[in-house]
Design a protein that fits this description.
This protein is an alpha/beta fold. The chain has two domains: about 5-115 and about 235-300, FAD/NAD(P)-binding domain; about 120-225, 3-Layer(bba) Sandwich (FAD/NAD(P)-binding domain), CATH 3.50.50. It is built from eight helices and 17 strands. The protein has helices at about 15-25, 55-70, 135, 155-165, 180-190, 235-240, 270, 280-300; strands spanning about 5-10, 30-35, 75, 80-85, 90-95, 100-110, 115, 130, 145-150, 170-175, 195, 200-205, 210-215, 220, 225, 230, 265. The strands form four sheets. Strands 1, 2, 3, 4, 5, 6 and 17 form a seven-stranded mixed beta sheet that branches. Strands 8-15-9-10-11 form a five-stranded parallel beta sheet. Strand 12 and strand 13 form a beta hairpin. The longest helix has 23 residues, at about 280-300. The protein is elongated, with a radius of gyration of 22 Å. The chain starts with a strand and ends with a helix. Homodimer. It comes from Metabacillus niabensis. It holds the Pfam family Pyr_redox_2. InterPro entries: FAD/NAD-bd_sf, FAD/NAD-binding_dom, Ferredoxin-NADP_redctase_2. Keywords: Flavoprotein, Oxidoreductase.
Length: about 300
Amino acid sequence: MNTFDCVIIGAGPAGLSASLTLGRARRNIALFDDGTNRNRVTQESHGYLTRDGIKPQQFKEIGLNEVKKYPSVSYFSTTVTKINHDQKTALFIIKTKGNQLFTAEKIILATGIQETFPIPSIREYYGKSLFNCPYCDGWEMRDKPLIIIAEKEAFAMHMVKLLYGWSRDLVVATNGTKLSDEALEQLNKRKISIKTEPIKNLIGDNGYLEQVEFESGEIIQRSGGFVVPTFHRPNQFAEQLGCKVLEDGVVVTDSAGRTTIKNIYIVGETEKASSSSLIVAAADGQKVATSVNMDLAIERF
């Protein structure tokens, strides 16, 4: 088997950026991706200078084409199913869905995160009229009648304060959670409606929200909104490889992507188990790639 200097798992903005930097550093790289990036349902991506409004798939294709120009970078469109660490050789053995095996000196985990929603039907509207990031989609939803779906008070208040700059026509829906008197006072002062009863149904057409129905039978008109999901990594690679992970899901690093296990690096949303913008993830990928390259340079000098 050909041994790569580094295997990068995940071709989102973080993984692509890391691949580009390492490819330009003439490192022998393998990049794996299975197309499950969470922004694939988004119509447009925003906030990335020179690429504002680009479709996520187009962004990815541009990145892949740039990375593939470098002959030392190999791209594999497949799922990595298992990573083992060979203690004798100190190499990592990467197994894919097709039972192919690859070996590498170093690993960058860039598999991102996935959402879990408080109401399953949110998935039907997510990326078209329901979103989780005001910086990404707040402008498009400006001045519209919006709903904020958040089951924890802290998250609900954080989101409503953010969105108040984009739209004043807001309804906060906690899906059964009661709010504190302090929170109620703040919201009532600004004439923001509060619905604490569970949501029964979301009503709309082709991914575009029109109404929200509550358990009481009450139906309100909304043109879209924002939801606070919980996030999780789609795999347990970090845990299985022995990396230290905090209770909140954050993988411990030295701030330059090096985990507590030598030669394993982590980047972007995968590290923090929380959402990030394209531009921040790409910058993080470049930073971690320089750590990998510097470590290789020192070890081989």
